Amino acid sequence: MSGVILKSVTCSLCLLNTLTSSTLGFSSLRSPLKKMNSTMKAIRIHSFGGPSVLKVENDVPRPIPSEGQILVRVHAAGINPVDAQMREQAFSFLPKLPLILGKEVAGDVVEVVDGNDSSSDHHYKPGDRVICCLPCDSGYAEYVVCNIADTLRLPSHVSYAEGAAIYVAYFSAYRGLITKLKIRKDEIVLVHGASGAVGMAAVQIAKAVGAVVVGTAGTDEGRQMVKDIGADYVVNHRDSSHLTQAIEMIPNCKGFDAILENKATKNLAMDLKSLAPNGRIAIVGAKESVTIDPRFLIRTEGYITGVKMSDISRTQWKEYTEAITSGMIDGWVKPVIAREYSMEEIQLAHEHLMQKHGHHGKLILKIL
């Protein structure tokens, strides 16, 4: 199925911090580097809590890359729900403080500490535009160190803000739709919560496969945006009968073949009732437990699976990277930016991030 793409809480993102990258077999080759300051501007937390714990600091030590890594001057960083969950100490593990949040950035390569790692096809030089995936955080800063194996090239026609909206949203959606649900051309795919960053990515990926896509959103603006990015049908998920309405809108529809669920706590019970025979559900996000009736799974012989980003293998990473990079080049990967914030507005950004309704695309932290 990935070939089709190339041609044309436990929230899964909360587990990103456990992802590790293979950097075996590197021999040191450091690129020339002009004299730089040893400190940088960054946003750190020294304790867990609400948005007020996010502090802008001007004298944070600048990271130094090791073998198999690059130093990147950050232009933009993605702001994701997992950032707020980390800040609130929503997980059983305790990250070391002080902590710089941020799972993804886009910027320019400043320094390369390269090697002869046969598992990596990336060969960077200072000045190259890149997307950095940061499983262990550190994105809310002027500079980041990133494993070469965890980078994508940023095409010249894609902005830094758009580049910072790629990793979490598109990799999550791709894993859910392609790896887990294995969606196919002409299948009917429901994206629950399609106006958010992951939802919009899912709509674009499903359309690239050739599926019939139904997207849901809770506001007029959100529904228009979902329609504009390519959804075939759009319904208001604040209407309790929205799934029935969607099924009735589609000719000869017996239910949804696949559902990408961003809010399982609220929607999973309804999702099960609307599955087609052999229908599948992939859960990307769920804040609390939920009670379901398993008889609907018996009736459809359907199944439910989760989406866990930390389980992406290196082979899958290469597949996802090639697919999404191809989509950026071909033009069907089109991140929608809801709003950009300065570093001084980070507390406001997290307040907006925590709003329950009305998310229309990606929130971005503007660094440079």
Can you give the mean pLDDT? 90
Strand content: 25-35%
Task: State the distance separating the first and last CA atoms.
Answer: 38 Å
Biggest sheet descriptor: 8 strands, mixed
Contiguous helical run count: 11
Radius of gyration: 20 Å
| Class from helix and strand fractions | alpha/beta
**Shape call:** globular
Sequence stretches where pLDDT stays below 50 over 5 or more residues: 1-32
Q: What is the string of helix and strand elements? A: HEEEEHEEEEHHEHEHEHEHEHEHEHE
What's the total number of strands? 16
Properties at a glance:
single chain; 368 residues; alpha/beta; eight-stranded mixed sheet; six-stranded parallel sheet; 11 helices; globular; disordered N terminus
